Amino acid sequence: MTKFSLALGAFAFCAAPALAQNEQLHFLSRYTTGLGTANAEIAAFDASSNRMFCVNGGNSSVDIVDLSNAASPALVTRLSIAQLFGDAEASAAPNSVAASNGLIAVAIERKEPSGRHKPGRIAFFNPAGALIDVATTGYLPDMVTFSPDGRFALTANEGEPTGDYSFDAEGSVSIVDCTKVRLALANPSQAASYALTAADVKLATFGRFNSMVTSLRAAGVRIYGPNATVAQDLEPEYITVPQGSIYAYVTLQENNAVAMVNMLTGVVARIMPLGYKDWSLSAFDASDRDFAIKIQSWPVYGMYQPDAIVSFRIGTSTYFLTANEGDARDYSAFKEEKRVKDLTLDPTAFPNAATLRLDQNLGRLTVTDKLGNPDNDGDFDQLYTLGGRSFTIYRAGNSGTLTRIYDSGDQLEQITAQLVPSRFNGDPVFDTRSDNKGPEPEGAAVGVVNGRTYAFVCLERTNGVMMFDVSNPNTPVFRSYLNTSTVSGSSQSGDVSPEGLVFVPAAQSPSGNALVLSSNELSGTVAIYEVR
Predict the structure, then answer these.
(1) Which among 152, 186, 217, 329 could bridge 147 via Cys, Cβ 3.0 to 4.6 Å?
(2) β-sheet bridge partners, residue 46
(3) Are strands 91-100 and 103-111 parallel, antiparallel or unpaired?
(4) Rounded-to-integer distance, Cα 279 and Cα 260, Å
(5) CA 178 to CA 81: how far, in whole Å?
């Protein structure tokens, strides 16, 4: 087990021994929406205006917040997305927001009263909240981002089915050329002459892979929805665009894969399976009924199933970091989650099945029943959990392929087990999530501070943000962990359930120090941290 030591500050921890450079996360301030759960899920920062933008899905609004004094964030205005798009046919709610050189993009999902998704929208605003233009996207745009040069805005269109699977929308990636939008931003009196047309928007779809379903499954891409084509089954979750690249990399969370999309042509170039983690070679806590922290090896495989993916460069090489949260399909007509004790285990593969099936061992562990029975004989030869409980670093090859060079293994659980044992895998109730994805690393960001490259990973269930030095991507070093939630009995206050992270470099920060913005869905808050 890796050893760590407590640093100064409530719930702020750093690795030992201390390094020559000792940057850590420090709490600076908090923005509170006052809207509670299902709000402040994702944030963005615009350096040109020193404003932060956060989406409130539960309230169908976007908050514009003045961060000129980052220690005292102040609400400027609250934009109502419902008033823009809440017509009689479809409800509308913002899912994500991104900012680039004074241009703000908001991803908006739309639904019919039946719950069936309609094509979504990207709405473009100036930093004051004035609407510039709107583009149509695919179904359920769940995340929006800009290419590093600001030319393209992209959405990951998840395309989830209805609960009864009567309609299963295709997943896709929308790519908007923002040239006209930026001209309209710079020349508002002439905005009408710069209106977006269909030629400015590309929809990257997966239809050409429908005939490749057998080979994709054989390679490890999960295509498993009932009667779904490849295009219907793939669910884009998160996008990153490496500096200087024409390709966007898109996580397909449920499918345990990453897609590579050509932004210039709007064509999906490849789909890359991520493989499985062998938990017999690593360790995790598998039970919420052992009444203890018991991180050990188990005869189980883990699907990585990343949510966030971010890219960064070290020297001349491009790297990607994923936060391996995990996700299962859980609909009224299709459910894949089972507890191990409810499955029949193959006696040859699991000679100690009776012991494994005890609640204090693997009995209560949530696994999928859509993998592990390759011979279809009614019993399971392997067990597969949801999510990797880790972050992973990949190096990009010359052809865009990804090579895994590092996985944090059991480190996230080991760190929280030592530093916040009473809040282990279930903040605020101890150990309640060990049977289901553990700490759930969800959001990620990477940035440079004083010449060192740092990765930040937020833990949805354990709460807080972890910071690692990834200047050598092959051997990341844990630097600090900051949890700004407060527990009282079985309730919490402060910053609860972080979803997304934004890194603001010192050169763009209103405080003069690098910032990390952590948006928290359950508390409806954005925590503002300094790195110093």
Answers:
(1) 152
(2) 51
(3) antiparallel
(4) 28
(5) 21
Give the total number of structural domains in the chain. Answer: 1
Instruction: Confirm whether 88 is domain-assigned.
Output: no
Question: Is the preceding peptide bond at 428 cis, omega within 30 degrees of 0?
Answer: yes
* 420 domain-assigned: yes
DSSP for residue 344: P
Q: What is the pLDDT of residues 120-165, one digit of tens each?
A: 999 999 999 999 999 999 999 999 999 999 999 999 999 999 999 9
Which pairs count as long-range contacts for 120-126, CB under 8 Å and 24+ apart, including other chains? Answer: 120/155, 120/157, 121/85, 121/92, 122/153, 122/155, 122/174, 122/176, 123/81, 123/84, 123/85, 124/153, 124/178, 124/181, 124/185, 125/62, 125/79, 126/102, 126/185, 126/188
Q: Which stretches of 140-211 are assigned E, i.e. beta strand?
A: 141-146, 152-157, 172-177, 201-205
Give me the count of residues in the chain. Answer: 532
What is the band of 171 on the pLDDT scale with cuts at 50, 70, 90? very high
How far is it, in rounded angstroms, from Cα 506 to Cα 395? Answer: 26
Range of the domain at 14: 1-31+299-327+386-532
Residue 467 lies in a domain: yes
Tell me the average pLDDT of the chain: 94
135 vs 490: which has the higher pLDDT: 135
CA nearest to 336, candidates 399, 394, 256, 438: 256
Give residue-wise pLDDT tens across range 206-221: 999 999 999 999 999 9
Find the helix or strand (DSSP H, E) in which 262 lies: strand 257-262
Residue 202's SS3 state is strand
Whole-number Cα distances in Å, 482 to 13, 310, 419, 466:
7, 21, 10, 7
Assigned domain for 483 exists:
yes
> Shortest CA distance to 496 belongs to which of 455, 527, 469, 475?
527
Q: How far does CA 495 lie from the centroid of its chain?
A: 17
Cβ proximity of 150 and 182 under 8 Å: yes
Our CA angle for 250, 252, 255, nearest 5°, is 155
